[in-house]
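From the shared-data thread, chain only:
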Amino acid sequence: MPQGWAIRLTQILSLHQAAHGLPRFPIDVAALAQDFSRQVFPDAPITMVGGLELSKGVEGMLMPNPNGSGEWGIIYNETVRSPGRRNFTLAHELGHYLLHRFAHPGGLECTNRNMADWDEGRNRIEGEANTFASYLLMPLDDFRAQIKDRAIDIDVMTELADRYAVSLTVAILKWMTITDKRAMIVVGKEGFIDWAWSSGPLIKSGIYYAARQTVIELPPGSLAARGVDMDTGRHGVLHPAGVWLGSEPIREMTVFSPSNDQMTISLLLYPDRAPSRWEMAELEEEPTIDTFDKFMDGRAG
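Structure, as tokens:
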């Protein structure tokens, strides 16, 4: 179980950090992977941790030492500049090492899409590696303590990303997996939706973007499509119904990354309560014209 491995490592880390007076976060995945694997799996330790220039779109790899020694390496793509993405990739590959190396003795190569695939039902091994990485880097008790009684916005998510040395996207995804709020993250590239993820309560409302095979433009009225200034994007706006999916007003906050394929990260917050079927029916009904108003309008003409 990915959570089980993550909790075991978290307990070891907590004791080690406390004994040596070290800060609890962020976690040094490289040191942890090598020390832990050497002690627990001395015949198959992780002896290489670092960056290699991998193909575009490949985020990281779990690879056996080609000399047949039984040693392993966990690798990130060194062309990725974001320290947060590199850190999460190493944790993801450590998850593969602990959970999947026996079934995949030749190793695994992971794309940036795999890093966003947290649905174990859709892609079991990538979902498990992401679950492991999220629990290791952002343990639930600490994560919940950081967001307790706080209104969620981009600034809070950025603070969490800094605390755990992960990307903003990963911090938002972690929150999305535990929140009771109706929310969605939408990542855009060059004016199109690259991928999106709805929280459980929003999925129950039937609001989500279909599988990635569909090409969908970012809504023209969205902050992501309009390319507003950074401050406006971070603080967000309350859109009327109809800009994004659903028939409700939605708060959108967006971060722009012009250096990365014109990437946008939008956090959408829906009202806490979904409209009832009766309210939806009223919204969808054509407005009727009051005969008295029509009569009076005619007289005024």
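The first strand starts at residue 46 and ends at 52.
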